[in-house]
Specification:
The protein is of the alpha/beta class. It folds into two domains: about 140 residues, Aspartate Aminotransferase, domain 1; about 220 residues, Type I PLP-dependent aspartate aminotransferase-like (Major domain) (Aspartate Aminotransferase, domain 2, 3-Layer(aba) Sandwich). The protein is about 45% helix and about 15% strand. The chain is built from twelve helices and 13 strands. It has an eight-stranded mixed β-sheet with strand order 2-9-8-7-6-3-4-5, with helices on both faces. The chain has a three-stranded antiparallel β-sheet with strand order 10-13-12. Helix 2 packs across helix 9 and helix 4 packs across helix 8. The longest helix is centred in the last third of the chain and has 26 residues. It is globular and about 65 Å long. The termini are far apart. The structure holds pyridoxal-5'-phosphate. The site of pyridoxal-5'-phosphate has 13 residues, from helix 4.
């Protein structure tokens, strides 16, 4: 017996990414492939204390159904932090709590895409965003990233096509490239999107993990039509699955409607526990400690690359986040290196995973977030040796 599944599930790219991820999860591999927070930095004890406190004080309402838009004090906390840290004018009714920022993408897609509508993404782009938008069967096009953000001319051209509704971007410490848009690019993007009346979906899971340079204001602040996605996954823990979307009330109202149909609401237990954790602890100190830890790992990876990798391999120094993007010298294949690296028990994600339009075999994503210094050094030493060998062939 075989089932007849909907057309939206037929993505040729899909098994490729699945295979890659399966290899990288083998236990004795030094894996630069994951893009997950370091579990050693989780505030486990503090969260346990928050669970005990809220469950003891208000167990019944914690275990009851709740509202779709999300726990009001938590939305107020998010709005207040935006005002303090980013100078953004946001109120709690312009925020909806979601199951991670991933659900924000799903809701944005449901709100704005009919089959065949256009979505523009960065090249390379976060692969699970491509998956989320792909579910609505749009036509997806990709605009290359330059060293300080998306190429403005090509963005304008892509947004000028008929039926383009959304531009999805990760302008700060991008996954996969680690790249951050300059202020000038941010302004240009806002202007281009306004000119073409395209809605910005700005995904900002890493912005707080800055360890160099100055904080940048989200493009959302300047954009005419925009949704800003945020998450506690990288600053507290991903397992609670709490993120949010921030947008005009008109958009939030539609998101509430779409979310209700999907899951009624995000776990109120998790929201209350998270809120208690946030008010009982010095969260800013915790985030600063995370950024420092990731800086140490990033600097170790950069030093190892300088020591062990041929100079023909290109990379930029990230100002924060979890990723480094390597550009390979002409003639080298990331996929072939991936296979060779598996034999040497080291893993990364080949560039193809982040492309919706083919290509990408000339680059790879490395994450330093979960490895200690010795692991980073040894993994890069093995990778550098392989690249040298391939260059010599
Ligand atoms: C760019 C980007 N957006 C969204 C997510 C998903 O985050 P969340 O746990 O908030 O759903 C990730 C996770 O790695 C990511 O890298």
């Amino acid at each position: 017996m075989s089932y007849r599944f909907a057309d939206r599930l037929a993505n040729p790219h899909r098994s490729f990414v699945k295979e890659i991820l399966a290899v990288t999860e083998t236990p004795d591999v030094i894996s630069f492939a994951g893009g997950i927070p370091n579990p050693r930095l989780f505030p486990t004890k503090e969260i346990a204390a928050a669970v005990e406190k809220v469950l003891g004080q208000d167990g019944q309402s914690l275990l009851q159904y709740s509202t779709t838009q999300g726990y009001l004090p938590l939305r107020e906390y998010i709005a207040d932090r935006y005002r303090r840290k980013n100078g953004l004018k946001v109120s709690a009714d312009e925020i909806i709590i979601t199951n991670g920022s991933q659900q924000g993408m799903d809701l944005a897609a449901k709100l704005f895409l009919n089959k065949g509508d256009g979505v523009v993404v960065e090249r390379p782009s976060y692969h699970v965003a491509i998956q989320a938008f792909g579910m609505l069967e749009p036509s997806i096009s990709a605009v290359p990233l330059l060293s300080d953000g998306v190429d403005p001319e090509l963005l304008s051209r892509a947004c000028g096509r008929d039926g383009v509704q959304l531009f999805y971007a990760v302008p700060t410490f991008q996954n996969p490239s680690g790249l951050t848009y300059s202020s000038q690019r941010r302004q240009e993007v806002a202007q281009i999107l306004a000119r073409h009346q395209v809605v910005l979906v700005e995904d900002d899971p890493y912005g707080d993990l800055r360890f160099r340079g100055d904080r940048q204001t989200p493009i959302w602040a300047e954009a005419e039509k925009a949704i800003l996605l945020g998450t506690f996954s990288k600053t507290v823990v991903p397992g609670l699955r709490i993120g949010w979307a921030c947008a005009d009330r008109e958009v939030i109202e539609q998101m509430v409607y779409a979310k209700q149909a999907t899951d009624l609401h995000t776990s109120i237990f998790d929201q209350r526990v998270l809120y208690q954790y946030l008010v009982d602890n010095d969260v800013e100190a915790h985030i600063a400690a995370l950024a420092q830890a990731y800086k140490g790992q990033c600097d170790q990876m950069l030093a190892s690359l300088r020591a062990h990798c041929p100079a023909a391999v290109g990379y930029a120094e990230p100002e924060g986040g979890m990723f480094l993007w390597l550009s390979l010298p002409k003639g080298l294949s990331a996929m072939r290196l991936f296979d060779l690296a598996s034999e040497e028990k080291v893993a990364f994600v080949p560039g193809q995973a982040f492309r919706c339009d083919g290509g990408g075999d000339d680059a790879m994503r490395l994450s330093y977030s979960t490895l200690d210094e010795a692991g980073i050094e040894e993994g890069i030493r093995r990778l550098g040796r392989l690249i040298e060998r391939e260059l010599a062939d």
